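So, who can interpret the following?
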Amino acid sequence: MTINKRVEKARILIEALPYMRRFEGKTFVIKYGGNAMVDESLKTAFAQNIILLRQVGINPVVVHGGGPQIGKIMEQMGLKAHFVDGLRVTDQETVNVVEMVLAGKVNKDIVNLINLNGGQAAGMSGKDGRTIIAKKRKHVRLGPETTTPEIIDLGWVGDVERIDTKLLGMFNSSDIIPVIAPVGVGENGETYNINADSVAGHIAIALKAEKLILLTDVLGVKNKNGRLITKLKPEDVPEMIADGTIEGGMIPKVQTCVNARANGVNSAHIIDGRIEHALLLEVFTDQGVGTVLV
């Protein structure tokens, strides 16, 4: 390695130093999903990023998805998936598979990956310690030929009602990194499948997190010309949704970030998990790699 390359590495560390000082002792809630959960090199890089955050005194809390993994297991079991407006219809048989895959296989794979790379992680779902109390989602949409709202029964699909932070507080006072499956529990013990972005947002609010970071499979929020918007004001979001600048699956992600910002989270980020070490680049460099709501 040439001396110039070594000097450049030193400059990168110097650039990161003020951010390390600023965020020491702070909590980051990170939603892990998309291609970053599939590509082997990206999986390893994610685990290393999480460990480094913890090593410099930041408290990372990982919330993960697992839609493709659920679909694969259901196919192997001969179960057919049904979706309404992008939401998985979750009957009793399906919710059993969801819990088995998310709180079991996927969760423990992430925990194992962090541990193998030198960190200390422990897995849990929202049912542990009744951390994520959920209620049945009421999904309403307009019919194709009428303006009368239609209520769709999605089965055991839930929304977060409240977060109990007692168990998460125990992790916060240790070196153990919590890895949370987005499975909630109802008042009477029912199991609910919940959107992982939404879970991450609610946990960030409950923990008074410094940052909420959502990993996606796109660069971030783009303008009408397809260029990345690096800084987005929450008050601009409604108009951008109305005029189609923000559309499709990006709408709930941005709305989750807006809600987090409105409820005490200092900044919310949407970043491209396909970029190796995207987390470190977003947190510890001046320019970042995605969209931040500030």
Q: What stands out?
A: The chain has one domain: 25-124+168-179+193-293. The first helix runs from residue 3 to 23. Residues 30 and 213 are 5 Å apart (CA to CA).
